[in-house]
Amino acid sequence: MTTVGRLRFRIAMSLDGFVAGPNQSVDHPLGLGGMQLHEWVFGLAAWRAMHGLEGGDVDASTPIVLESVANIGATIMGRNMFGGHPGAWNPANPWNGWWGENPPFHHPVFVLTHHPRPPLALEGGTTFTFATDGIETALARAHDAAGGKDVALAGGAKAAQQYLAAGLVDEMVISLVPVLLGSGERLFDNVGYDLHGLTLVRTVPAPNVTHLQFARR
Predict the structure, then answer these.
(1) Which domains occur in the chain, in start order?
(2) Are 108 and 76 in contact (CB under 8 A)?
């Protein structure tokens, strides 16, 4: 019998509950001010190595970053995280993501969308498959592709809300950043009043961020 891995969700969030700022666009994919949510990670040696960069720091966030990519065999993300224009894909000038010809995933990625499109194979083992049959079918396909490893839920907010509300997330790490964005995309809109089976199991304070790890009871 094939072992099915966990669905693991990681995201950075502001003190006022936003995971992206207002006015998201191709020029500002995280919205105005949204880049502040990730400044704690950019200087870490672990993050830099994943992106082909040398040097960097080691601090209490390092194990969190390393754990986030350990044993991941596939990723699910929403259309907004993959990016580009809304609506149907432009066949003359298709959007191929933010990450260039060699994205940092190096495994199958399933993009939730209402608009069909052939799979997009890029360098380094990353293939984007555009999943139009709903979140549960996308998760089943991701588990099959992961071959027993875990599946990462990369966001954005709307994709995360659907999986959280459906009770399908097995582990969640919120990296809480001490900034206020004021408006934008809130993580916990439309998910109800509880954590759908998740409970806090670990808190890791680190420079400029506090990591809250939740696991399924």
Answers:
(1) 7-24+31-85+103-216 (3.40.430.10)
(2) no
